[in-house]
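Ligand: EPZ. Inputs:
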Amino acid sequence: MDGNELYIKGPQRMHGELLIQGSKNAALPILAAMVLGSGVFLLHHCPHISDVDHMLEMLEMAGCRSRWEGHMLIVDTRQLGNHRITGTGGGKMRSTLVLLGSLLGRLHRAELPYPGGCTIGKRPIDLHLKALQQMGVIFGHREDALVGEVQKLRGAEIYLDFPSVGATENILLAAVLAEGRTAIHGAAMEPEIVELASFLKKMGARIRGEGTSLVEIEGVKKLHAAEYIVPADRIVAGTYLFGALLTQGDIRLLHVPVAHLGGIPTLLEKLGAHVESEDDWIYVRMDRQCSPVPYVVTAPYPGFPTDLQSVLLAVLSVASGMSFIEERVFEARFQIVPELRRMGADIEGEESFVLMEGNSRLHGAQVEAKELRGGAALIMAALAAEGETCVRGMEYVKRGYEDIIGDLKKLGIMVQ
Ligand code: EPZ
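Predicted complex:
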């Protein structure tokens, strides 16, 4: 790989076993939650990805200290005291927003760069602000920073108009040290919410209902440090499972909480794959061309995850017939359609619907990733394409995939 480009010669077959990295979207809110307790935290199986590095920069700015020992992260929050986390380019990264709830919980003040939108959508934060205002927070802004202050966080009855993952996380983080009871109606049910709640309970928080649409929190006075293991990343696992279908290969993924994959195994079978799994491993083999799936719609968990929509697009472009995908979570998540077309995919589409004719024969091309999951999908498509593909924009992929080249090599793929 040269800089931020990856060259792949296809077609190749995926074959082998892989241990899946820790989950980016579980690790980030867990790191933010450490702000709520004073002590030394141990976080095992934490992914070495740029979004985690960025989150650690913010924690250090708040006064925390952190260091890696292999994949174990040691975070010391005993000197935490600065609520002003600005000027670190945090706006470039959505996940800084989850520091809002925990800084308000611990310091009663927070100043964060406005989280920028990105190519997949405007990414508003109205649900976060409305809920935290109900808990007594007053918001203002200074230059390009969001400022929040509260005398004393108080529990509230909160109704979310949409089961926003980030808003549910921010409310959880603000509620665990608030006065009284908080109820989140219409909460997100993603596995990352359950992991965050489990971590907070290890710190001494009182939470129930996580993983359902009603989550209740009883505020406590103080929280302490804890040790935790980050679960495998369900989206990274799903990326490689669909890659195995694209390349008509066979792979076994280890230490994957299969329950976190929701309906993915069933969809893999619908696409024609042979699937075997138990609680913490899944094996998939594809002996033939994928079958089409007439209609897939992305939805909050346990629906089909929007983060795997791009790689499913690539799979359905080569399926033996017409398929249809509707994107209902983000308003602009078909960035890779022009890139897949350049590789020979026959895709018709507008903002939130795309139609794949299927039976496309993908060929190598110069393609450009514009965001994390689209980049990973282009790499999977390149494995199935005839000839050499150059994927530019690997800096986006590194935000969420710790070592996609190393992973692919373990799955029998040659990349340079
Ligand atoms: C989290 O983003 C994930 N990121 C995303 O993964 C994932 O795609 C998304 O959840 C949905 O599952 C992290 O966990 C760091 P949302 P988040 O709030 O919390 C709208 C990846 O590739 N909305 O559930 O930002 C929003 O615009 C990333 O790992 C509001 O309107 O997602 C979107 O259309 C990409 N107002 C929808 O809700 C708000 O206040 C879902 O957003 C908040 C959100």
